Amino acid sequence: MGAVACGPEDGGAKSAGSGASGTPHKGGALSVLNNEAQTDFDPARLYTSGGGNVPSLVFRTLTTRNRENGAEGTKVVPDLATDTGRPNADATVWTYTLKDGLTYEDGSPITTADIKYGIERSFAAELSGGAPYLRDWLVGGAQYQGPYKDGGKGLASIETPDAKTIVFHLNKPEGEFPFLATQTQFAPVPKAKDNGTKYEEHPVSSGPYKVVKNENDGEHLVLERNPHWSEATDTERKAYPDTIDVRSGLDQAVINQRLSASQGPDAAAVTTDTNLGPAELAKVTSDKQLAARVGTGHFGYTNYIAFNPNVKPFDNPKVRQAIAYAVDRTSAVNAVGGSSLAEPATTFLPHQKAFGYTPYDLFPAGASGNAAKAKELLKEAGYADGLTVTLTHSNAKGGPKGPEVATALQDALKKAGITVKLQGLEGNDYNDTVASAKKEPGFFLRGWGADWPSGGPFLAPIFDGRQIVRDGANFNTGFLNDASVNSEIDEINKLTDLTAAAPRWGALDKKIGEQAVVVPLFHPVYKRLVGKDVKNVVISDWTGVLDISQVAVK
User: Fold this and answer.
1) How far apart are CA 439 and CA 97, in angstroms?
2) Where is this region: Disordered (predicted)?
3) Edge-to-edge order in the sheet of strand 86-87
4) Which residues pair with 168 in a beta bridge?
5) Sheet holding 418-425: strands in order across?
């Protein structure tokens, strides 16, 4: 990290010196150079955790992520609410109270009725795109179709007994509801200002900035200060710059070139979506001044081999175990840029404590694979002379599911007597194929990232048998439906003490790992440049990237 930040590796706290040299001050203009446009800038349609990055400048939520470096940044803290929520005895009812003095950009008060309405409109078909949890968790959520069709009835499972109190009734115990309350669907929306699909053009701000321009569906966003935002009610967002100009649709190489050169407005520029690639990183690290402007982050994500046990020979656990022993994680890591950009993984859960990370290596392959053990298991499985399999991967070059990683695995498995034929698919075709229960191949590359830093949204979608989707997007690729696993997921979800829940997620990870329905390969490491005038870089283990709400340019 050099002088840029106390990164996730240090877990250092925010301080005046945690950015470029000098104390951060208010004022100036921050530029954001991005590859992907900030489309669907409507809190109902955004699929973000912790409030998102750019969205979090405009939308406040009941709770939010703690804006601290490293592990401290994985915690939930109050935002619009006075606390992170008060559960009943079995965590099926959650109550929140709003802070005093909350207002919109026009000075009008924020009420719990606005939060209830904001959530309800996220159920409307024309505003789809957000996370599915509210539909699954709220009583009556599965049948609700949103306020435009409910005849004014609203969702009965959300109660607002007064302007400052809101109560949620859930189908089942959910100890992690405070994490869900960080999603932008919990941002308040005044009903009188809701104009449906056009709301994204000028959403009413509850945060430190308001939208003054939104061109080409989020390709160019201009944010200016919200004069009615109060620092007294918002201790998380620093809101140093006067204006923030977000331009998207830029080539990633161009973004890194502009940040490196830091000429004119680019000296006060950041990116929220573009990493340094292997070649760019090599150039940057050889220049001390540039290296001091690189932020390092870890987001909870795992790239892995997935098996479909309904396809032979992967119905045989010994075949799956043999492949687990045969993989060469060093070559897989090198295929995505080396140890600066990826860390080898033997657990499905990422390495951060918040997820419940518990070290285990059930099928020790060492750094370069254990071909001898793999051959032994293949013989036991009836394949003493080896076997031939097909590995499906994405054709996106340089990516974690791309041909480079596939080729590295092909070479490693060959040493164990496994001939691997490669089947590359283009983007949409690949995504549609591996996420379809009907079309899923037997052996393919996959990845998963958590919606918030906990073992729950990491393990449940992939291994809870009740989440297998036969007609639609299915993420339980191994079709695991183990009653003991399902039961333990339910038991952990009852816990509101997340510190106590974490090690149980870790133990469950190991239990699931014994079935070898996936082979973890590596976790990504993010390396991103900032402009030379950027100060106060904060990178949490929740997002793994620079927190734009903390950045100063003066």
Assistant:
1) 47
2) 1-30
3) 86-87, 93-97, 165-169, 158-162
4) 94, 158
5) 342-344, 518-524, 301-307, 443-449, 387-394, 418-425
